[in-house]
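Chain A, query sequence.
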Amino acid sequence: MNNNPSIIKRIFSSLWRVLTLTRSVVVNLVFFILLFGFIAVISSGDEQIQVPEKTALVLNLVGDVVEQKREVDPMEAFLSEAMEQKDDNPEVLLSDILDVIGKAKNDDRVEILVLQLQGLNRTGLTKLQDIAYALEDFKSTGKQIIAFGDQFSQDQYYLASTANNIWLNPQGFMLLDGYGRYKMYFKSALEKLAINQHIFRVGTFKSAVEPFIRDDMSDAAKEANKLWLTDLWQQYKEDVAKRRDFGVENFDENIDTLVAKFSAANSSFAQYALNNNWVDQLKTRQEMRSELIDLVGKNKKGNSYSHIGYQDYIAATSSSLDEGVELADSANDKVAIIVAKGTILDGSQKPGTIGGDSTAELLRKARNNDDVKAVVLRVDSPGGSAYASEIIRQEVELLKKAGKPVVASMGTYAASGGYWISAPADKIYAAPSTITGSIGIFGMMMTFEDSLSKMGIHTDGVGTTDIAGFGPTQALSPGMANLFQLSINKGYQEFIQLVADNRDMTVEEVDAIAQGRVWSGKKAKELGLVDELGNLTDAVVAAANLANLEQYDTLLIEKQQSSRNKIMQQLIGKSSSLISMFTASQEHSTIDLATNAVSNKPLSQFISLMKAELTQMNQFNDPQGRYTLCVACSAN
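Chain A, predicted structure.
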């Protein structure tokens, strides 16, 4: 017994030495890797990635396609890559994809473009249409596009349909299931937990809060959602049918028809796809590889076809180490582009989320920059904080007062708060498939007095007013409930008045198409909520025309990185290349025709859905508790 303290002391001493040694090894490892990176930078890149003279550009997209990437600490990203830890939610910039396709179109070294899309996650029809347009433009030069895979999801297939040839593995899978909107509902669960939810909203179709007050989707929400989902699905069918040269009736929406065709194809999804003219040929991976070798020859190792992955192609064709830095040294006037992507939250937020203060600051930079003559606000947001939306709107108005036209360009969605910040623009552009509208407002809070009482916990005390001590551990009084509802009512009136003032409509006309209802961009144009159907390029041209500009450059105004992060990114970028060379990594090229495993674990999917729901509700931070958010604005 007397020896126990010394034994414990020796154990902790040993553990401390191990921790100290581990920390020293990690610090030294990072130091030497960064040192190698620094040497690589100053030695001016003798190991530059080269584009082969006769090659295929592989568009091997992995992750979500986004308008703006979320901010990630460069050191954290580097360590994850060095430790071969895959990002749980990788992102690909839409602008990178479009730039790569545009460069390859005029690059004589690139003979064909290969679509390898099995890592592509759900993207949204609007972004898919932008990419498909660029792919069609690529084909206009006479160059071929080939798409191959072990399976195609619906979003992946939309892009694959632009190809001259689509190859599917004989054991592959493909099924087009259309668009749907399904959510989890928590009313009964909250009742069992004795959690009292208090909802304040305006709008018959404002269904954002329904999961907390119902166990199913309301008839009004079903009616509204079915309308825009059908519109998007019709656009999908028409686009694919035109490229594949068959009718829009060739989409098997009836289960009996699908089962009959599947049985006729010997219960093979691949054969069903071939019989239905979804794909052109069924090929094994080796057959695909051999066919590509016949088209562009072998690579240097002689074990596959000549190729370059799109990320390597970006690195090889980049004119600057500082990716994302606009070369705006010319004397031309500027059309500034400001991206507002993600949920709208109060305060200053990192890229990938819209902050009322941080986005307003970007707009203010455009206003104070004498070279900027017009602004395009690229909105890709379902909304969020009403207060933050208003802060951004005020800056848009100040831009206009400064004589700088503002054009709103809507991406996949610009609904609720996304529409709030778009409404004051001089002109609004949307894609036909943009999800917009959802003009409504709500407030929500939960109180836990009944849950706590079951555990024997109670709140009591005295105050000098009726509202003293108000909080989540006490019941919400009728008077306070009335106060909150009046505030929500006022917020809705402000919203529809804002739209009426800027869209040359009466408040009554706006109210008739508002009430929280969601519309496609195509329908929104018919209703007068947007001016034109078009993409970001169209919006830039419109902004230049409004400012009477004949010669101009575009200038992306975004959050400035710290000098530390810029240096780190350069060093880490070079170090990553060295690591890649030393380990012969082929992560970015994916040229062995290997497929990424598709996770389909029901429990993991359920946990991810629950986590997403709770995360979204937990991040709300409007100072007045008022939100203009379109929860329904995604199709699955």
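The chain is about 45% helix and 20% strand. The chain has two domains: 55-176+252-320+564-598, 179-241+333-458+471-550+616-636.
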